[in-house]
Amino acid sequence: MLDLEGKTVSGSFQIGDRWIAGELHFHAGETSLHLHDEANFRPDAAADGLVRGLLADRRSVTLVGCLLAPICGTGMNSGRRYYFTDAFVHYVVIGNRHLNASAPCVTRVHLETDDAHRVFNDFDAFGTVYGEGPRALAIDLIKAQTKDLNRPVPLGEHPEVMYFTGKTQIIAFNTVLGELSADHRFQRSMGSVRGFNLTNSVVLSLAPRQPRQFDNILDDVLVLLRFLALVAGREQNLERLYIETTDQDPQVGGPAPPLEVYWSFRPGQDRQSVEPPHAADLPLNPIARADEFEKVAADWIARDAAWLSARTRFHSAWRRGRDFSTDRLISAANMFDLLPDSAAPEKVTLSPELEAAKLEMRQRLKQLPDSYEKQSLLGAIGRLGTSSLKHKVRHRLGLIPGEVVACFPKLQMVLEHAIDCRNFFVHGGKPKLDYHDNGVVTLFTEALEFTFAMSDLVQAGWTPNWRGRAFGQSHPFLLFRQTYPEYLEELQSLQGKTSASAGDGG
Questions:
Q1: CA distance 211 to 218
Q2: pLDDT at 251
Q3: Is the pLDDT of residue 164 over 90?
Q4: In this structure, what are the phi and psi dihedrals at residue 33, rounded to the nearest 5 degrees?
Q5: What are phi and psi of 219, to 5 degrees?
Q6: How many alpha carbons fall within 13 Å on the CB side of residue 217?
Q7: Could you give the CA distance from residue 322 to residue 233 in angstroms, rounded to a whole number?
Q8: Closest to 22 (Cα-Cα) out of 78, 89, 76, 77
Q9: DSSP letters of 395-461?
Q10: CB 250 within 8 A of CB 244
Q11: 156: Cβ–Cβ under 8 A, 6 or more apart, which residues?
Q12: How far apart are CA 17 and CA 22, in angstroms?
């Protein structure tokens, strides 16, 4: 995908029953198709925004999600009239054949992200042999490699032996979406006087149980990217995307080769202000604790459909990195209201006295003339006994192990202040603190996001092991732990000033 960025390729493209010359411009969110012809044509003759093409290098392209104008523009050049149109293109699928985007034909999808090698840090797969071993190994290797040569290969005093273990698969397990796996995909060059090259990428692959339509498999990719973002601690930049289909290659008598997908509005994040994560700081380890990783991933993915609204809010916030604002705070609090009923208690038990008072107030209000105020009070009374935002946040906090919560003194108090702050910016009224202090807004936002994400992973089966281990700061969980004491001190200072002001009658 990245090797196409910024390029322009020419070809011919099918519009209705005609083939029109054009140029395809690859430019992230502005990817476009420019068509031109001496005869007038109807751009919207392409059904369902789908355009097939043949590039000058003879590769087939399928343009999916094209926004086509109903009529062409017209121009003159050297006394000759021509007709043209420009169309935005959401997806470009490139390969040796066209894609039937409306049919369930995708059998496997492969994706590469910029943090996949950090999440799936199979450190021992590649290495260098040190000490006395390399010389003996080099002698045997060179003898085996050169036995058919008609010349000797001299061996120096300090040979080096670098290796790949040959184990290409890192992990593989089943999810509701299908089999999910991570693999090494390496490329090597032949040795020469200039040396040799061995590069590797970690590729995440999903094989659905049944072939999927193109748009459905992209939804599955988004689920995987959200999970990887949670583990890595930052949104994932999608670097490459390939799909395999049910098509057969008649030349080789087997499955057709994969098709590359260029995604105009591909998920990603500006990396200028976001530090890369260190593998040791990540909450999950698919190498050392593979069983836990598989369990957590499978459960998290299984719940994604029910949690989608809340999780998309969360990831939209994380995409902003260290940029905090009252809008982000409001969004962080609202995530808990968007959780499904299974994620938080739906009902709250009222005392007999409160139940009696609730019934009495409702009966008295019903006797009054109808008004906005009456309906507002009835609505508030009706909500008594249902789980409020504070109830939901407290419940999610209760899922986090005590040894983790102990690292954040007074966290429940901080979360309740966060909701009060959110309520002030949503509903107005008298603030309990100076909520325009950006330090407390940052603290409140991070506390809500931490509680949401941490409890989500714990519910999926993650057991945080924070006791007696060193911590970095490359994952938001750990960075929040490092900065929390300072922000808490600032909050308590602000509370003291507010109390003093109230005592003075200010």
A1: 13
A2: 80
A3: no
A4: -115, 125
A5: -60, -40
A6: 29
A7: 12
A8: 89
A9: HHHHHS-HHHHTTSTTHHHHHHHHHHHHHHHHH-S--SS-TT-HHHHHHHHHHHHHHHHHHHHHHHT
A10: no
A11: none
A12: 16
Helix (H) or strand (E) holding 481: helix 476-503
d(CA 223, CA 300): 10
* Structure confidence at residue 239 as a pLDDT band (50, 70, 90): very high
For the stretch 86-102, pLDDT in tens is 999 999 999 999 999 99
Q: How many CB atoms lie within 10 A of CB 217?
A: 23
pLDDT surpassing 90 at residue 500: no
The CB density around residue 197, as the number of other CB atoms within 10 Å, is: 11
| Nearest to 62, CA basis, from 30, 21, 33 | 33
DSSP 329-365: HHHHHHHHHTS-GGGS-SB-PPPHHHHHHHHHHHHHH
DSSP-assigned letter for residue 44: G
Q: CA–CA separation, 368 vs 471, rounded Å?
A: 61
In the 8-state DSSP scheme, what is residue 41?
Answer: -
| 397-409 tens-digit pLDDT | 999 999 999 999 9
Q: What is the pTM of this model?
A: 0.88
> What digits encode the pLDDT tens for the residues 135-157?
677 777 777 777 777 777 777 77
| Average pLDDT for 37-42 | 92
DSSP annotation of 226: H
Q: Cα(331)–Cα(449) distance, rounded to whole angstroms?
A: 10
Question: 149-188 burial, b for 16+ CB within 10 Å, e for fewer?
Answer: eeeeeeeeeeeeeeeeeeeeebbebebebbebbbbbeeee
Cα distance between residue 306 and residue 313, in whole Å? 14
Instruction: Give the residue from 153, 166, 158, 108 showing the smallest Cα distance to 134.
Output: 158
Residue of 30, 89, 85 lying closest to 61 (CA atoms): 89
SS3 100: coil
Cα distance between residue 443 and residue 418, in whole Å:
8
pLDDT tens track for 199-228: 899 999 999 999 999 999 999 999 999 999
Tokens at residue 251, please?
């030349």
Report d(CA 92, CA 98) in Å as an integer.
Answer: 11
